[in-house]
Design a protein that fits this description.
Chains A, B: GO terms for molecular function: 3-isopropylmalate dehydrogenase activity; magnesium ion binding; NAD binding. The structure is a homodimer. Chain A has 12 helices and 12 strands. Helix content of chain A is about 40%, strand content about 20%. At the A-B interface, helix 4, helix 5, strand 6, strand 7 and helix 6 of A face helix 4, helix 5, strand 6, strand 7 and helix 6 of B. Strand 7 of chain A pairs antiparallel with strand 7 of chain B. Bound molecules: 3-isopropylmalic acid (2 copies).
Amino acid sequence: MTSSTPVTSAKLAVIPGDGIGPEVTAEALKVLEVASPAGIKFEQTRYDLGAERYLATGEVLPESTLEEIRAHDAILLGAVGGKPNDPNLPPGILERGLLLKLRFELDHYVNLRPSKIFPGVVSPLGEHILKGAEVDFVVVREGTEGPYTGNGGALRVGTPAEVATEVSVNTAYGVERVIRDAFARAERRTRKKLTLVHKTNVLVNAGSVWWRLFEAVAAEHPDVTTDYMHIDAAMIHMTTDPARFDVIVTDNLFGDIITDLAAAITGGIGLAASGNVNPDRTAPSMFEPVHGSAPDIAGQQKADPTAAILSASLLLDHLGHPEAAAAIETAVLADLSARTPGQARRTSEVGDAIAARVAG
Amino acid sequence: MTSSTPVTSAKLAVIPGDGIGPEVTAEALKVLEVASPAGIKFEQTRYDLGAERYLATGEVLPESTLEEIRAHDAILLGAVGGKPNDPNLPPGILERGLLLKLRFELDHYVNLRPSKIFPGVVSPLGEHILKGAEVDFVVVREGTEGPYTGNGGALRVGTPAEVATEVSVNTAYGVERVIRDAFARAERRTRKKLTLVHKTNVLVNAGSVWWRLFEAVAAEHPDVTTDYMHIDAAMIHMTTDPARFDVIVTDNLFGDIITDLAAAITGGIGLAASGNVNPDRTAPSMFEPVHGSAPDIAGQQKADPTAAILSASLLLDHLGHPEAAAAIETAVLADLSARTPGQARRTSEVGDAIAARVAG
Ligand SMILES: CC(C)[C@H](C(=O)O)[C@@H](O)C(=O)O
Ligand SMILES: CC(C)[C@H](C(=O)O)[C@@H](O)C(=O)O
């Protein structure tokens, strides 16, 4: 939730990460600096975490580093992840040991993912679907529970008798707070519409607590229109009528899936920003592009920094500077409209162009 | 897997179900009859199961009915499900008590869902994505494990201390057999390509057994090209380059989600057929359209029976009659190409038209 008390000085932890992470983060910081209101001071600390660090030192997220990061006001993250199938990088080690560890430890229970079809951006959906309707919704993905808890295990690994489990944990505590946040967000928007996405017909235990709390909180928000959709049906609605969505609230795994679809249909993951938000501010929130570290194009100034820059906009909004945040978004919109299809700019050129628009 | 021994007489259990189920099933049976090779006899038994039956009698799937159904050679199912949010129909009761019960009891471990963009069908994806490339893939969804086992529970329901869990169960036994089936299918296709879809970076226990067995079986099939994709990344590839897929193998829940997306991008769930296949033939396989019972348009002859008719084609293929199956598909293709956009036909008119093409 956006704070009402603007922060005038902020300690910013920067985790550029791997692959294209450092390149896009540099542009995000460039724009952040230009966009920040006069007088606001960002004190930056850089943390080298990710695949490179792990491969070099065996460290993923030392406890002392986590505690240092915790003492910041916000985190800007680029992207983490090594080369696909690197045998020295066990699957999940960075995801569970770093990314998810931060989300869980810092209680980022609102994973916020806005989706818009920006002007000038080509959606994979045809004009017969889009019909000029405005696609502008936000997914409030639960960030600290569900199948992401790392709860589960395996027995007789590597034998024909192996059994492996994954446990989705859903608490009334965790579900209610994210639903409340989603209702509050819906209430602040023009259409005031909130859709719960789940799979209540199969995952009946988890579905039941989500459904009941959704209904209960809905009763307190008569001005918000609600509906419900199974995750599979949501695939269809998202690709055949994306304009129908305003705010979506859903669990951690469904949110992971639907936000990538949302990114795809709004023109690609190169534009998708996200905030891992701790609305209670008991720990710093973290802002990151949805895309990965794209090691294949790393270091070549080929990556589009727009998602990272939009993540910096979410960061400013979170720190109580909605005008500065909006200025970044406006600059990005203008930049996107001015892009010439097929004409590739360097990562830093995109950052410069957007920074110039914010400044001027 | 297609049987090599064609069945010449078959006991067919027909479950028309609720809503539009009976209407589309009638057309599927009409076409099945016309398409069946001379000499093949279908002995049909009709089972009234679904929301109506439950609301009238409290029965979902009596044990004796299950045993009767088990004695058949194949099952044709329309659709089950009552009115949305009917307070007399607890969420999941039909899904878990009837549909999934049949899939699990009859060991339908291969949930087969072919996806094609048929000629004349409008995909929501734009021409800039499709570029005339052929979209023709099949999803092999695991049908008897994963988060669908009904394993889980809830504690302190309705209190602020509620905890609800869902356990995804993955066994080497269950994972290996579906992966083997998928490799065999890939091997029979022109492109011979198999993509594993999972979320190995987060669901590390389940992901590990899927990944290891996929690699192990791949080693036995050097002629099959393999790749791997996280479920979230699959959302992007499916909407920006669906032609890249040939065969996809995935778990029960990811399969549920991705097949609805596949149905959407190939022109809608009105065309999506599926087979719940027991490749070992220890029990009858079940064929059903992917769509639901659509109570809002039930009894009005408005439903498109094409998905049900294509499910009958899968049934014939499963019973060892690939030519008869292909004849139905050819007739459907011709019918689709001849459809006039905006001109609605009655359910029975579509069935008649396709039956006439098969016959003549
Ligand atoms: C990298 C991975 C752990 C992560 C997730 O699954 O949440 C990513 O896909 C995302 O959406 O931020
Ligand atoms: C109705 C429901 C239980 C079912 C599923 O989730 O498998 C349906 O969505 C399907 O895909 O066949």
